[in-house]
Every structure is written in C-alpha cells, then in structure tokens.
Design a protein that fits this description.
Elements: E1 2-7, E2 10-16, H1 20-26, E3 31-38, E4 42-46, E5 59-60, E6 66-70, E7 75-79, E8 86-87, E9 89-97, H2 99-103, E10 108-114
Length: about 120
Amino acid sequence: MKIRLIVGEQVAIATLYDNVTARDFASLLPLSLTMTDYDTIERVSDLPRTLSKQGAPEGMAPVAGELTHYAPWCNLAILIKPRSYSRSLLPLGKVDEGLPILSRPGPYKVRIERVAP
C-alpha cells in the first residue's frame, strides 16, 4: 500500500510492508502527527495507540528511509540514517521518494494518508 506524508506543501511517498503491524498502522490513516528529532538519526512521534505485534520480528536493524514502530514507546520512527539492531523496533514500510522532506529538523507537522490505488 502506498502512503503520502505531507509536510507543508511538500509530499513524500512511501510503501507500507505487507505485515500485520503495517496494516494496523494503515487502519489509523489519515493521521496528523508532530515529528521531533531523536538521536539525530530518527524523526519520531507518538501514535494514538500501540500497534499489533502479531507475527512481528523481535526487532530490526533499519536502513535510512524505513518507517518503523517502536512498540515500548508507542511511536512512529522514520529513520534518516541506518542504525544498529534495536529490539522492539518493528518494520512498517520504506520511503520511496522524498526522504529529504522528512529529514528536516523537527518539530514539524506531517499528515499521513493513503494514496488512492
């Protein structure tokens, strides 16, 4: 499933992975969030609720551009740079185009919505 992440007048496009956690995230859309900096390599925001972990891996080593869910903090994390393995970090999707739009220093507002097929 394709989603758009809108920051001001700019749009990034991402593809959600085919897993239970990503489908649960999609069920929250459309969603407006405020992204903040975390550890200089992530932009994060709290989600309205924790997403399903059914069948999810115990963690992952994300690459730049991955959309993830950090279950213990109930947040969305967009990776600006790769990072080492992190337990409880769950894969949601990958930015296809527009990562520089999402890489700007926070805080900034983003609206996330489905792209019509």
